[in-house]
Amino acid sequence: MAVDKPHMNLAVIGHIDHGKSTTVGRLLFETGAVPPHIIESYRKEAETKGKGSFEFAWVMDSLKEERERGITIDIAHKRFDTDKYYFTVVDCPGHRDFVKNMITGASQADAALLVVAAPDGVMEQTKEHVFLSRTLGINQLIIGINKMDVVKYDEKRYNEVKDQLSQLIKMVGYKPENTKFIPMSSFVGDNIGKLSENTPWYKGPTVLEALNALVEPEKPTELPLRLPIQDVYSISGIGTVPVGRVETGVMKKGMKVSFMPSNKVGEVKTIEMHHEEIPQAVPGDNVGFNVRGIGKGDIRRGDVCGPVDTPPTVADEFVAQIVVLHHPSALTVGYTPVFHCHTAQIACTFIELQKKLDPRTGQVKEENPTFLKTGDAAIVKIKPTRPLVIENVKEIPQLGRFAVRDMGSTIAAGMCINITPKQMR
Question: Pseudo-torsion of CA 117, 122, 125, 128, nearest 10°?
Answer without folding.
Answer: 130
